[in-house]
Amino acid sequence: MMTLTADGNNRHPFIVEADTTSGYWSNHPDNTLPPPDMMGAYMRNRPYPANQIEGRKGWIIGSGIAGLAAAFYLVRDGAVKGEDITIFDALDIEGGSLDGAGNAEDGYIIRGGREMNWNYDNLWDIFQDIQAIELPSGYSVLDEYRLINDNDPNYSKARLMHKQGQIRDFSTFGLSRSQQWQLIRLLLKRKENLDDVTIEDYFSADFLQTNFWFFWRSMFAFENWHSLLEMKLYMHRFIDAIDGLNDMSALVFPKYNQYDTFVRPLVEHLKKQGVKFEFGARAYDLEWRDEEGKCTVTGIRMLNHGAADLISVNEKDLVFVLTGSMTEGTAYGDMNHAPVLQRGRHDPGNDSDWALWKNIAKKSSLFGKPESLTENELSDFSGL
Ligand SMILES: Cc1cc2nc3c(=O)[nH]c(=O)nc-3n(C[C@H](O)[C@H](O)[C@H](O)COP(=O)(O)OP(=O)(O)OC[C@H]3O[C@@H](n4cnc5c(N)ncnc54)[C@H](O)[C@@H]3O)c2cc1C
After folding, report:
1. SS3 241
2. d(Cα 272, Cα 289) in Å, to the nearest integer?
3. PANTHER family from the xrefs (predicted)?
């Protein structure tokens, strides 16, 4: 998610460079704050709204978990009034990829189940403040989640199969000393040195036949030809779950689908605070003022139920936009019909959420090169 902000609080600015690899968070006398992505009890403070600007509005494109989280934090920690926040979505329902639909007769469908673990710090930070679905008032979604997983823990009895269905010994990673070093060295590499390197470019052929690699690639949907950098980033993110990787005991799951478990109670909470939702509204471009590389959004161009619209953004407002949805253009098949891919492989077209990213990237190199992703099949997009 990108945050473009008119500068309401510039006591401790973190400079966002066009080349993000050249900027590092570091502490010094002018920046004594903890890093913005740090989590933990120290971050549970309620900031006193000293910098609150009366009438500040929040404009959020996308009502997936990222957009809902942005609204939650604007209200809880940013002291923005709920009624001053609007969430737009091209779809006619909130939740984005976290969906759940169907009925007992026709069957149920969700676009992927979600493996989660204990270190989803932001998620749990939010959901410890959201009323549980079934437990009495005062209990949170997190309380409910723990109850389920503590009493019905997840583990696999047959994590690896081979020889037409026989359980393979999955008690160890099966990594030799030199294969372990391949992993350690990857953790220590600088990300800017890993552009355009694939997993199979880096790892030895024998590494790609280890239990570890089978665990990893099946849990995180990696192919051998995928990006090594992506794998490195996942390793940093999930290293603390490594102990339960072989039998999946490091994972936790909700009782219901993710729409009912997370989206519904969070949306209910936001609506109670006055947050507004507008559906059928696709943003396709941003107007901004560019002052020496600092972009200040002045307007959001939308197609609102097909009609062109321009949302004016004031100097003090905050705009959060998503670069597109990984589940856009989902096609479904069944036992008798293959899914039909309706959109071109190489260009998702202007009637796509991705148009917004393409349009802003044309105007500023700050937003990267979306075409480097859409040049490959979009079906390659997967993620955790
Ligand atoms: C099959 C599958 C399996 C997955 N498994 C896991 C897992 O096991 N564990 C895990 O942690 N994660 C998993 N993920 C990833 C996780 O679901 C996503 O990272 C997360 O849901 C993304 O949330 P988001 O809000 O960023 O985007 P999305 O959920 O994609 O929501 C984006 C929303 O924004 C709207 N939107 C986008 N652009 C525009 C625009 N220009 N104008 C208006 N509206 C717009 C879209 O309509 C959509 O509603 C999986 C994903 C898939 C697809």
Report:
1. helix
2. 34
3. 67 KDA MYOSIN-CROSS-REACTIVE ANTIGEN FAMILY PROTEIN (AFU_ORTHOLOGUE AFUA_5G09970), MYOSIN-CROSSREACTIVE PROTEIN
SS3 71: helix
Q: What is the mean pLDDT of residues 79-88?
A: 96
Q: What confidence tens digit (pLDDT) does each residue in 169-183 have?
A: 999 999 999 999 999
Q: List, in sequence order, every residue forming a beta bridge with 361; answer none if it has no partner.
A: none
Residue 127 lies in a domain: no
Range of lowest pLDDT (13-17, 111-115, 248-252): 13-17
> Could you tell me if the CB of 61 is within 6 A of ligand 1?
yes
Domain for residue 360, yes or no?
Answer: yes
What confidence tens digit (pLDDT) does each residue in 34-53 have? 887 788 888 888 888 776 67
CA 229 to chain centre: 17
| Residue appearing with tokens 């590092």 | 24
Mutate to test the pocket of ligand 1, among 98, 99, 114 (most ligand atoms within 8 A of CB): 114
Nearest residue to 302 via CA among 329, 321, 276: 321
Residue 384 Cα to ligand 1 midpoint, Å, equals 10
Annotated catalytic residue within 120, 139, 202, 234: 234
Same domain? For 203 and 312 the reply is: no
| 234 is known as an active-site residue | yes
pLDDT band at 20 (very low <50, low <70, confident <90, very high): low
Q: Which of 211, 244, 277 is the last residue of a domain?
A: 244
Q: How confident is the model at residue 21 (pLDDT cuts 50, 70, 90)?
A: low
